[in-house]
Amino acid sequence: MDHNGLSDPYVKLHLLPGASKANKLRTKTLHNTLNPVWSETLTYYGITDEDMVRKTLRATRGSLQRHETIERVSGSSSIVKLLIRIESLSGSRISVCDEDKFRHNEFIGETRIPLKKLKPNQTKNFNNCLEKQLPVNKTEDKSLEERGRIMISLKYNTQKSCLVVGIIRCAHLAAMDANGFSDPYVKTYLKPDENKKSKHKTAVKKKTLNPEFNEEFCYDIKYADLTKKTLEVTVWDYDIGKSNDFIGGVSLGINANGERLKHWFDCLKNKDKKIERWHTLTNELPGSLND
User: Is the pLDDT of residue 124 over 60?
Assistant: First the structure.
């Protein structure tokens, strides 16, 4: 609280367990109030059914009481979007803090909401009292986190006889830089590719762990030849003056398995239809690729 008896509150969200910067969302700051109303919607992308069982939304903030609306929106490949609407002081880990331009921001309180309390396509309101800061299990955070997730679209265009690969966005990427972020970009190869002519690369997105690309690449190829090909997608952290860091990768094709194989088959079965899927990145470099 400030010397005038008021606060400049804002709300921070984290998904636990998880890397803090990769899944941290924040509202705007409201000045000189003890009864803030934000009316903001914060969105987590690439949330899996497993996340909905094991993860908890932590909300930390600065002010007196909270009201939040959380909605689970179903998506493809058992991955959903989680929408959190901040109405007034409420939480999930939700923390409320008092912003201070000249000193450290002051912690006001937090609350936590297990995601398993939500059902698909359900909007649920929570009215929680803020609590003092609760401990976070650091060991659990590190052991359960992945390299991140990527949303890819596939479409075989029969008129142009080409495979259209869309790199839509990534979520919860691993931080590779000292500042806790990465400067990610994505590369795609259609292999085998003896002459290495199939390489495509997105633009670099600066200082983010949740980049949005919305770029498409076309591969001229006969439909029948797709059964012999593998699409390799890798995510990298761009560094100036040294080798770029590999963040994670995924391979789609006949030799893949699980959702990666299903995505490829769905593309083959549905010509001229764009098929979007989320995929979990692995820390194994596909094939013999290097940057």
Answer: yes
